[in-house]
Write a structure and sequence with these properties.
alpha/beta
Length: 323
C-alpha cells in the first residue's frame, strides 16, 4: 500500500475535528474516584523461571470496579535498590503473555511492569484477566462494547485499570515511584496517551503508532479493523452516529494528549492503514508539552519502526528516568 493519507507537510499541520465533551475532566475525575474507592490490594508473587538475568513477579491488583487485573513485574536479577520504571500496555487482542517475552526494559536496568488487558489475550500473547462486565449488542472485538453510554464503555474500565497499574507498579519497594514512564504500541500507545493525560507526574511517555486517536477521522478513513468495528456497528444500528461519536469523544487520545505534560516520544508509519498517520499526528499535534518528538517511518504499515523504534526509545528514555 502506497501513501494514502495527507502528505507529510499536511500531517504536521493537521488538527482533529473531534469535539471534547464539556464534562471531560469531571467524567474522568469521577471515574478515578470511583475506581480508587476500592483498595488497590497489589500483590507480587515471585515466579520461578529459567531466566537468570531477571526476577519475575506475578502481579494482581484491583482495577476498575475492584476487579482483579493481572500483570508482570520484571526486575534485573538481584535488584536491591529502587529502580526507575516503565509501565507497558499491550496491543489490541493481546494479553500479558509469558515473562520471557518482556526482557527489554529490565535488560536496560529498569523495573518493567506489564499490564494485562481485561477481556483480551485470546488473539495473541495469552491473557489472564477477565472482564466481568457485560454490554448490550456489540460487534465482535472490543471497540463497540458499551458504546451507547460513556459510563459503560469498555475503554472506561481499561483506562481506569491502566491508571491503577501505574499505582500498583509504584507501590512495589523496588520501584522508584518518582521516576515512572508509560509506553505501549498500538492499543498500548492509545492507553499510554490516556495515562499521560490522567497521571500528572509521569516522567515520560512513549506512544508507538497509537490506536484510539481522532475517532471522527479514523472511523471514516480506514476500513481496516479495529476502527471498522464502529462502522459495522453503525451499519446495523442506523441513526446512532452522533450518539456513538459522543461516547467515543470521552476516550479520544487527542483530548488526553491536550493534557499531557511529560516529555513524549511518538512514532508514526506513513503507510499505516490500521492507525492512519493523520490520526497519530492529531494526537501529536495536540500534545500539550513542548518536549515532544515523533519518529516517522516512511514506508511502513502498522508494524511501524518495530525494533528500530525500540532502539530510539532506549536512547531517549534513560536520560529522563535516570536524571
Amino acid at each position: 500500500m502506497a501513501l494514502f493519507d495527507l502528505p507529510l507537510d499536511g500531517l504536521r499541520e493537521y488538527r482533529s475535528a473531534s469535539r471534547e465533551p464539556a464534562d471531560f475532566d469531571r467524567f474522568w475525575a469521577d471515574t478515578l474516584a470511583e475506581t480508587r474507592g476500592h483498595d488497590l490490594a497489589a500483590r507480587f508473587e515471585p515466579v520461578a523461571t529459567a531466566l537468570t538475568t531477571v526476577d519475575v513477579f506475578d502481579v494482581t491488583f484491583a482495577g476498575f470496579g475492584g476487579h482483579p487485573v493481572k500483570g508482570w513485574l520484571v526486575l534485573p536479577a538481584g535488584t536491591s535498590e529502587p529502580l526507575p520504571a516503565v509501565v507497558e500496555f499491550v496491543g489490541y487482542g493481546g494479553g500479558r503473555g509469558l515473562p520471557h517475552t518482556h526482557l527489554l526494559w529490565a535488560s536496560a536496568g529498569f523495573a518493567h511492569f506489564v499490564m494485562d488487558t481485561r477481556g483480551q489475550g485470546a488473539s495473541w500473547g495469552g491473557g489472564d484477566t477477565p472482564d466481568p462486565v457485560g454490554s448490550a449488542s456489540a460487534v465482535p472485538g472490543y471497540l463497540t462494547r458499551g458504546i451507547d453510554d460513556p459510563r459503560g464503555f469498555y475503554y472506561r474500565r481499561v483506562f481506569a485499570d491502566a491508571v491503577r497499574a501505574v499505582e500498583a507498579a509504584r507501590s512495589h519497594p523496588l520501584v522508584d515511584a518518582s521516576r515512572t514512564a508509560a509506553a505501549g504500541v498500538s492499543q498500548g500507545g492509545g492507553i499510554t496517551l490516556a495515562v499521560g493525560g490522567l497521571v500528572p507526574d509521569l516522567l515520560a511517555i512513549a506512544p508507538d503508532v497509537p490506536f484510539l486517536c481522532d475517532f471522527p477521522r479514523a472511523t471514516t478513513l480506514t476500513d481496516r479493523e479495529p476502527y471498522r468495528e464502529v462502522g459495522r456497528y453503525l451499519k446495523t444500528f442506523r441513526g446512532r452516529t452522533e450518539h456513538v461519536a459522543r461516547t467515543l469523544s470521552y476516550f479520544d487520545g487527542v483530548h488526553f494528549a491536550a493534557r499531557g505534560r511529560a516529555p513524549a516520544l511518538f512514532s508514526v508509519a506513513l503507510e499505516d492503514q490500521t492507525c492512519p498517520p493523520s490520526t497519530v499526528f492529531a494526537a501529536f499535534n495536540a500534545y500539550a508539552s513542548g518536549d515532544k518528538a515523533i519518529e516517522i517511518y516512511d514506508f511502513n504499515d502498522h508494524e511501524g519502526g518495530g525494533p528500530y523504534q525500540q532502539a530510539s526509545q532506549l536512547k531517549w528514555l534513560p536520560h529522563l528516568l535516570n536524571s
